[in-house]
Amino acid sequence: QVQLVESGGGLVQAGGSLKLSCAASGGTFSKSAMGWFRQAPGKEREFVAGISWFGSRTYYADFVNGRFTISRDNAKNTLYLQMNNLKPEDTAVYYCAAAPGAIGSYDFYKAPGNYGYWGQGTQVTVSS
Question: How many CB atoms sit inside 10 A of residue 116's CB?
Fold first, then answer.
């Protein structure tokens, strides 16, 4: 059983930065495809970024446009999302997700149904 715990959310002004972390336990983190998703009030959960087992491949939603960077530290069982130049429309609850043993391309990473484990989420609020 995989447990995921996100942290690092908060309130930031437009143009600011935040770094989210997702601590994983109870599974084989280094052999899990990992992703970040977000959900704003009244909207569906949407893909933000994904990363392969050893970080050699990363995938991003179009709206990221070079502002976010996904990374992982397998020695620390931790996933990260560095977010720069934040905009008010980035306001949402951010979730990390794990797909143990999975290998795929962009279409795999962007689909929430491909992930078997989810964290509880961390709120990111960007003020204008």
Answer: 14
Question: How many C-beta atoms lie closer than 10 Å to residue 107's C-beta?
Answer: 9
Cα dihedral sign, 75-79-80-81: positive
Which residues pair with residue 78 across a beta bridge? Answer: 23, 73
Q: What are the strands, taking DSSP E only, across 52-91?
A: 58-60, 68-73, 78-83
Classified as helix, coil or strand, 109 is helix
Amino acid in position 125? T
Percent of the chain as helix, strand, coil, to the nearest 5: 10, 50, 40
**Three-state secondary-structure class, residue 44:** coil
Query: In this structure, which amino acid lies at residue 72?
Result: R
pLDDT tens digits along 82-108: 999 999 999 999 999 999 989 999 999
CB 22 within 8 A of CB 80: yes
pLDDT of 1 reads 85
pLDDT tens per residue across span 42-88: 999 999 999 999 999 999 999 999 999 999 999 999 999 999 999 99
CA distance 24 to 100: 12
